[in-house]
Specification:
mainly alpha; 0% strand; single chain; 6 helices
Length: 187
Amino acid sequence: MKKQGQQKKEYKECGSASISRRVSSGAMLVALAMIFSYVESLIPINLGVPGIKLGVANLVTVTGLYILAPMEVFVVVILRVLLVGFMFGNGMSILYSLAGGILSFLVMLLLKRIKGFSMIGVSIAGGVSHNIGQIAVAMCVLENTKLVYYLPVLMIAGTITGILIGVVSQKILPAVSQGAGAERKNG
């Protein structure tokens, strides 16, 4: 009888350690994504087209999809958008980033689960869908459907940045997955 109580206690301790590890990993990823966002804001990229960014913070999202549970990645995306928006942006930037971030996350999660897409393909879809989400919100907010004409330029930019982020994510995944406990991967 004593042995069963001891086992239950061990399971409980193991579970709380797992939760603590997951929370600390998630917090670290949010912090890393925030740092990436801040550093990216310091890099002047002027291609003559407003709104084009490298999306370096998406390294965290893309890589996270391959080492974390989907809900954990979703929470990281939402927290990053909100915290970066409150620190460096405004209400409208939060709205645009939430739309892009959520749509991008959902599309990447779906394509990853289909199993026919490489990490680079998933990243490209994420970059393109992020821009689609932002244009959709802009069209609603500004009540101007002509913004859709801006979409082809943003889709090209999303494809290029998606390739870059996908390649880097693919290169860092082996090292990151060892440290994050890839056995937690879910999906």
